[in-house]
Each structure stands twice: as structure tokens, then as C-alpha cells.
Amino acid sequence: MNVSVSRLMRVARDGPKDFSERLLHRRNSLRMTQAFLAEKSNISNSFISELENGHANPSITVVLKIAKVLKTMPGWLAFGEGERK
User: Fold this and answer.
1) H-helix or E-strand spanning residue 81
2) Which burial class, exposed, middle or buried, applies to 46 when counting CB atoms under 10 A from its CB (0-12, 13-18, 19+)?
3) CA distance 46 to 62
């Protein structure tokens, strides 16, 4: 995991601003590892890392898979719209 501590602290303080931050925030709030999320969503661990670091953009299918594992609404995860769940 290459996410900086300062970024984690800023997200915790200010709230998540984009997909990568919402993904990181939700996963951490559930105390879930990237490896666990990757396994349960059938997405590679390296791609989860790329998503969290803002180096990749998810397809709708990926958003749906991740949202299901994170028990959150896909609209919130993708766009910050609606309730987190």
C-alpha cells in the first residue's frame, strides 16, 4: 500500500473527495485489507492499489463489484452522490 499517512489523515479530517479517496476511506473504515478486498471482489490487488492511488479509473463493473464487498452504494463510491449506506 503506497498511500501516505498525511493523505489518510486529510481524508479522515476533510472527508473523501474522489473515487480513490472514497474507496480508501470506506475500506479502512471497515478495517479491510487491500488483499481481502481484491480476493472478495475478484480484482487484482495491484489494481486495487492503483485505484486507491488515483492511477487508474474503474469501469462500472469494477465499481459494482467493489461496492458490493464494501457494502456501500455504487453511486456514492463512484460519484459521491447519495448515501454511503
Assistant:
1) none
2) exposed
3) 14
Domain ranges of the chain: 5-79
This prediction's pTM:
0.84
List C-alpha distances in Å: 15 to 11, 39, 70, 81, 83.
Answer: 5, 26, 17, 13, 14
Q: Give, for 77, the enclosing helix (H) or strand (E).
A: helix 74-79
Residue whose grid cell is 492499489:
49
- How confident is the model over 59-76, as pLDDT tens digits? 999 999 999 999 999 999
Q: How far apart are alpha carbons 33 and 31 in whole angstroms?
A: 7
Enter the CATH code of domain 5-79.
1.10.260.40
Look-up: residue for cell 474507496? Answer: 23
Q: In which band, very low, low, confident or very high, does the pLDDT at 6 lie, cut at 50, 70 and 90?
A: confident
